[in-house]
Amino acid sequence: MTHEEILAMLKETGLSAAYDHFAEGESPEPPFICFLFPESDNFSADNSVYAQFLTLNVELYTDEKDPELEDTVEAVFADHELFWNKSEVWIESEKMYEVLYQMTV
């Protein structure tokens, strides 16, 4: 999936979304989503990249735990036939939850 396809998919959640972060002073109130491609795991053949597999991180930020919103995000992933793994952390300095979805695209 391309950057543009990921952004279009995430807009289906109804949340604001940005690559990596929002610009200084432009961050919306939570909830919002950030996404990035932190690495790839390419397959080689004949001394070149035969197939590219990107790791996609989708970070959902909320002020409080919101299982219904997580269900909405996960339903969008299901609609696009994406397999994901999920982890969660409380960011004390920001007073926000980050729910991290990791997948390969």
Q: Give the low-confidence spans.
A: none
Sheet-strand content, in percent, reads: 35-45%
How many strands in all?
7
**Largest beta sheet: what is the strand line-up?**
1-2-5-7-6
- Describe the main β-sheet briefly: 5 strands, mixed
Count of alpha/pi helices: 2
Task: State the end-to-end distance.
Answer: 6 Å
Q: Write down the overall mean pLDDT.
A: 95
Q: Helix share of residues?
A: 10-25%
Overall form = globular
Based on secondary structure, the structural category is alpha+beta
Cα-based radius of gyration, to the nearest Å: 15 Å
SSE topology string = HEEEEEHEE
Question: Please, could you describe this protein's structure?
Answer:
The chain is of the alpha+beta class. Helices cover 21% and strands 42% of the residues. The protein has two helices and seven strands; from the N terminus they run αβββββαββ. It has helices at residues 3-11, 67-79; strands at 17-19, 32-40, 43-45, 48-51, 54-62, 85-91, 96-104. The strands form two sheets. A five-stranded mixed β-sheet has the order 1-2-5-7-6, covered by helices on one side. A hairpin with a 2-residue loop joins β3 (43-45) and β4. The protein starts with a helix and ends with a strand. 10% of the residues are buried.
